[in-house]
């Protein structure tokens, strides 16, 4: 545990120093926030520095090295110097607030790192893909990074968030098998503190004089909803199990414990289409589920980015309305942030573009005429789209979209199921909407209303249509619903704390809020207990499972990471998605001919290429024709051949003699595991 604490502190210090680089700029951007947007300095620095590294790498100007990272941060520091005098004054005045937020960040970073240490394995679900992206990026010299499962093509997915964590991994010089788990904890901590900052500043804008109690309470409650909250499914399902077991709702301790023990936490994210079982399987996850299952996937990586975007929108709306048609203070940062969001999780560009349109229109209507509000919203929105296209061009030049067009939904969710998932938020937010006109309205009211409206639209949209993808008909709406309602959950969560303060004079409402809050915050108990157990502390190193299951493979992976530089191609068995196949390419970042077939099917827009490659990999391991083997090895420029437990399992007719016939030498051997160098 103490050795892990050393890694946590080092990781935290790196993030702290990186954040300080853009702290002066942050105080300028968030000048109307009581905390000057302190926590967002980390997101700004990481976003800007990584984007610069990415663009310069795409155009082969600057390689992805520690020196390049340091130079980029120095360039950002020079840019920030112009705001230094104001920042220094702010630092002297506000340092207790900054220390408070930093302490919360460190506390949650440490706490969730220790939670991860009870089940640190980088294995299962999407972890191989996510970690493989990071390791491939760590080995890359220039962008775009190589697809570790489809040499020699680049990654055809949204990897900017993985690039951010590769950036921090390289700068901290900590093994990626550890930083993977630190990255999960980092997103968790940033989610909590950035949510706290945004909502407490929304509440701060209500009062002419700062009222510490309501400000802190609103921020903390919203941050808890956002980061550690579930939905009403836990209460619903436990009650349903209780009734099924007893014939009626029995509220004795034994009955409740028995029903609770039968509850399975993923059911809260797989409810519509699964209970009851129908031909319309959907996904409706939320941040805590992501933190628990620990896939470092785009939808989770982008949480801090989109919260920053929401906070930036509100900060810009607090300033006097721009007299000119184009508000460049709003346009340029919005376009760049939405570009980073797109390259991290593409759906978020559309989702938060919608939030921009609704919030800008509502806030503008409160300050100017209808015609002017429409014109400014349209003009600024179109300009953002144009700049977004330019900012994402370095990414788009090496990326092929995977969507196959829009379809109308032919099935719809039952209202009671939607209520189980989002009814808690509706109970909190609907009174705010009902009493809206009775307030002495301020900018924050219109902004929170825009969050509620946008979230509700996002829940309705999958009931109307969906984007066609490779998933089978039974799961046709799943991905669309997942990507939209995930953000809806976040927007509702951000609204909760502010709404409580706005309606705090209504005693019955405070009781309602407490009940809903309690129902949502039951979920972490079931999720964390089920996934982690919290009985055996194992540490942050994510490869212990390989040490136990495939020790010879792990030894070979260590040898490759210690002795092979660059990204020469290594041949290993092609495998099914969500298995332990392709552990070598994943753990080393060395590209192979074909990795997880279904994933490549998605990324390459069809099965033909991945299917053909899988056959070629099989032929390379099993073919008795030396000439065919030579041609295939040359075709993919294979320099290393890996023969381990998975290859022996996959190819029963595996024959290594042909590799030796072609001059391959064994450069590593441990048990049955061998590495040949051609």
UniProtKB/TrEMBL annotation:
Taxonomy, superkingdom: Bacteria
Transmembrane among keywords: yes
Entry annotated with the keyword Electron transport: no
Pfam families to which the protein is assigned, alphabetical: DUF2298
Record's keyword terms, sorted: Membrane, Transmembrane, Transmembrane helix
Transmembrane residue ranges: 7-26, 38-59, 66-83, 95-119, 149-168, 180-200, 212-230, 349-365, 377-395, 415-434, 446-464, 484-501, 508-526
InterPro entries membership: DUF2298 (IPR018746)
Coiled coil: none
Protein name: YYY membrane protein
């Amino acid at each position: 545990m103490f050795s892990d604490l050393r890694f946590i502190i080092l990781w935290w210090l790196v993030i702290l120093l990186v954040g300080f680089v853009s702290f002066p700029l942050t105080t300028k951007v968030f000048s109307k926030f009581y905390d000057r947007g302190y926590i967002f300095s980390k997101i700004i620095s990481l976003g800007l520095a990584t984007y610069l590294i990415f663009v310069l790498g795409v155009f082969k100007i600057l390689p992805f090295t520690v020196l390049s990272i340091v130079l980029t941060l120095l360039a950002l520091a020079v840019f920030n110097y112009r705001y230094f005098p104001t920042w220094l004054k702010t630092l002297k005045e506000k340092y207790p607030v900054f220390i408070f937020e930093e302490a919360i960040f460190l506390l949650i970073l440490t706490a969730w790192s220790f939670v991860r240490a009870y089940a640190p394995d980088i294995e299962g679900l999407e972890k191989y893909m996510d970690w493989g992206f990071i390791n491939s990026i760590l080995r890359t010299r220039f962008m775009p990074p190589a697809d570790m499962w489809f040499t020699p093509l680049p990654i055809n997915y949204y990897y900017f968030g993985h690039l951010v964590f590769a950036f921090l991994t390289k700068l901290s010089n900590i093994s990626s098998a550890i930083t993977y788990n630190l990255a999960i904890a980092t997103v968790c901590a940033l989610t909590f503190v950035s949510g706290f900052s945004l909502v407490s500043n929304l509440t701060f804008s209500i009062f002419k004089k700062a009222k510490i109690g309501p400000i802190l309470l609103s921020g903390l409650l919203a941050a808890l909803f956002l980061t550690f909250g579930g939905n009403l499914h836990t209460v619903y399902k436990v009650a349903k199990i209780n009734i099924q077991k007893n014939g009626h709702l029995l509220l004795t301790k034994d009955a409740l414990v028995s029903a609770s023990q039968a509850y399975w936490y993923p059911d809260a994210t797989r409810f519509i289409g699964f209970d009851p079982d129908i031909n319309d399987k959907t996904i409706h996850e939320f941040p805590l589920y992501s933190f628990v299952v620990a896939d470092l996937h785009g939808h989770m990586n982008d949480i801090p980015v989109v919260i920053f975007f929401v906070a930036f929108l509100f900060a810009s709306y607090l300033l006097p309305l721009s007299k000119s048609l184009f508000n460049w203070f709003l346009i340029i940062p919005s376009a760049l942030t939405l570009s980073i969001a797109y390259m991290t999780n593409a759906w978020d560009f559309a989702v938060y573009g919608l939030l921009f349109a609704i919030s800008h229109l509502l806030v503008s209507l409160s300050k100017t005429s209808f015609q002017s509000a429409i014109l400014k919203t349209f003009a600024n929105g179109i300009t953002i789209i144009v700049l977004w296209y330019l900012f994402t061009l370095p990414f788009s030049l090496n990326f092929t979209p995977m969507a196959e067009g829009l379809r109308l939904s032919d099935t719809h969710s039952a209202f009671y199921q939607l209520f189980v998932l989002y009814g808690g938020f509706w109970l909190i937010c609907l009174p705010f909407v009902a009493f809206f006109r009775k307030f002495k309205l301020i900018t924050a009211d219109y902004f929170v209303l825009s969050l509620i409206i946008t979230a509700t639209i996002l829940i309705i949209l999958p009931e109307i249509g969906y984007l066609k993808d490779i998933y089978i008909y039974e799961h046709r709406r799943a991905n669309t619903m997942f990507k939209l309602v995930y953000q809806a959950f976040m927007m509702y969560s951000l609204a909760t704390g502010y709404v409580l303060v706005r309606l705090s004079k209504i005693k019955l409402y405070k009781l309602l809020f407490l009940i809903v809050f309690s129902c949502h915050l039951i979920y972490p108990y079931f999720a964390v207990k089920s996934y982690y157990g919290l009985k055996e502390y194992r540490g942050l190193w994510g490869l212990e499972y390989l040490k136990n299951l495939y020790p010879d493979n792990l030894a070979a992976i260590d040898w490759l990471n210690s002795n092979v530089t660059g990204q020469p191609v290594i041949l290993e068995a092609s495998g099914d998605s969500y298995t332990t196949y392709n552990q070598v390419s994943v753990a080393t970042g060395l590209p192979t001919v074909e990795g997880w077939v279904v994933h490549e099917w998605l990324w390459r827009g069809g099965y033909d290429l991945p299917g053909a490659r899988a056959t070629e990999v099989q032929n390379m391991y099993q073919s008795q024709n030396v000439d065919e083997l030579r041609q295939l090895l040359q075709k993919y420029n294979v320099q290393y051949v890996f023969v381990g437990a998975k290859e022996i399992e996959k190819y029963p007719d595996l024959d290594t003699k042909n590799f030796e016939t072609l001059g391959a030498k064994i450069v590593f051997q441990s048990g049955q595991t061998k590495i040949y160098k051609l």
